[in-house]
Design brief:
Number of strands: 17
CATH class of the largest domain: Alpha Beta
CATH topology of the largest domain: TIM Barrel
Number of domains: 2
Pathway: Amino-acid biosynthesis; D-alanine biosynthesis; D-alanine from L-alanine: step 1/1
Distance between the termini: 31 Å
InterPro entries: Ala_racemase (IPR000821), Ala_racemase/Decarboxylase_C (IPR009006), Ala_racemase_C (IPR011079), Ala_racemase_N (IPR001608), Ala_racemase_pyridoxalP-BS (IPR020622), PLP-binding_barrel (IPR029066)
EC number: 5.1.1.1
Modified residues (N6-(pyridoxal phosphate)lysine): 47
Radius of gyration: 24 Å
Structural class: alpha/beta
CATH superfamily of the largest domain: Alanine racemase
Largest sheet: 8 strands, mixed
CATH architecture of the largest domain: Alpha-Beta Barrel
Catalytic activity: L-alanine = D-alanine
Low-confidence stretches: none
Length: 376
């Protein structure tokens, strides 16, 4: 049995799985992207519970590293960031929640206004004496959130609009930045340059993590790195930064299964050889996707223990899954198995499940015992 790593999470015996979250790696990843952003300020996207690692520990670590601006999806997330970083600038990407203008302002949360309805509500609030700040989202080609360029032109014709609405930023979002050669990138950049000309003097934000790597023209004034901070892959052909999250599950049983037998629900996979099968105390209730399982038609994801990969066998169930440890004779009941981390990249596991790293990270369940390396 391999020696226990003193830096690894020491989960209680009551936990079936554990997460080790390296806040030092998180901070170093942000610093690397901040340097790559050049003269632009690097903010941090911490939505989705900071991509599954824990919002408050992530914000505290990033604040210590020098991050001063955070982007979240919802006002509730913004309130939690405000408690962890009292002096931070906080933008709410999903826009102005209906009838909550005063709450945004009182908590110093800046809604990213992306529709004429939101604009009207925010303008009415400001006209009544409200003093909060906001950002303006202009759609440049994603067709998700944001006012149209034509609507932005109409607004820009009002020379007092920026001051009257307390606007501090104009932004958009790249749809295909992870594919550098995609023609939509250049089209969105050109549109955003035109948007900047409409609102001279107003800071501009366009680039996510992948957008930062597209070059200085995409950086504008504020970059918004997300997945790259957390160690996930963010652009074709560029290796991820440092691993931040290691997910592990405990072996609860090992059994010998003859060739020709099946394992798990649906008899999805038939063993081609006599096999040593380890059952792990984790499943889709913990955010490990059911689609990552293995069948006779296609291989699934793999795990890692004792220096070697161990593939999944059969379907992932709610609380359990099986791996083949025939070629890992050291495997024993009670061992911890890496589901993803430095040895088993999260991108590979996500690909086996037909999804992306973002979804796997943000799906991490509440049953993991969480351990933070560095100050949380």
């Amino acid at each position: 049995m391999e020696q226990s790593d003193p830096n690894r999470a020491q989960a209680p015996v009551t936990a079936g799985n554990r997460l080790t979250i390296d806040l030092g790696a998180l901070s170093r990843n942000w610093l690397a992207l901040d340097a790559l952003a050049g003269a632009a300020e690097a903010a941090a996207a911490v939505k989705g519970n900071a991509y599954g690692i824990g919002l408050v520990p992530a914000v505290r670590a990033l604040s210590r590293a020098g991050c001063r601006t955070f982007f979240v999806a919802l006002p509730d997330e913004g309130l939690r960031v405000r408690a962890a970083a009292p002096d931070a600038t906080i933008y709410i990407l999903n826009g102005l929640a209906s009838n909550l203008s005063s709450m945004h302002a009182e908590a110093r949360l800046r809604p990213v206004i992306g529709s004429t309805g939101e604009l009207d509500e925010w303008a009415a609030y400001r006209a009544r004496g409200g003093d909060g700040n906001a950002a303006l989202h202009v759609d440049t080609g994603m067709n998700r959130l944001g006012i149209t360029f034509a609507e932005a032109q109409e607004l820009a014709a009002d020379p007092g609009l920026v001051e009257r609405l307390g606007l501090t930023l104009v932004m958009s979002h790249l749809a295909c930045a992870d594919t550098p050669a995609h023609p939509l990138n250049a089209r969105q950049l050109a549109t955003m340059q035109n948007v900047r000309a409409l609102f001279p003097g107003l800071p501009v934000s366009l680039a996510n993590t992948a957008g930062i790597t597209l070059g200085p023209d995409y950086h504008f004034d504020i970059a918004r790195p997300g997945i790259g901070i957390y160690g996930g892959p963010y652009i074709e052909g560029i290796a991820p930064l440092e691993t931040v999250v290691t997910a592990e599950a405990r072996i609860v049983q090992i059994r010998n299964v003859p060739a020709g037998q099946t394992v798990g629900y649906g008899a999805a996979q038939t063993l081609a050889r006599p096999s040593r099968i380890a059952i792990l105390s984790t499943g889709y209730a913990d955010g490990y996707h059911r689609a990552a399982g293995s069948t006779d038609q296609r291989p699934g994801a793999a795990t890692f223990l004792h220096g070697r990969p161990a593939p999944l066998v059969g379907r992932v169930s709610m609380d359990l899954m099986a791996i083949d440890v025939t070629d890992v004779p050291e495997a024993r009941r009670g061992d911890w198995v890496e589901l993803f981390g430095a040895n088993m990249p999260v991108a590979e596991v996500a690909a086996a499940a037909g999804t992306i790293s973002y979804e796997l990270l943000t799906s991490l369940g509440a049953r993991y015992a969480r351990h933070y390396l560095g100050d949380a």
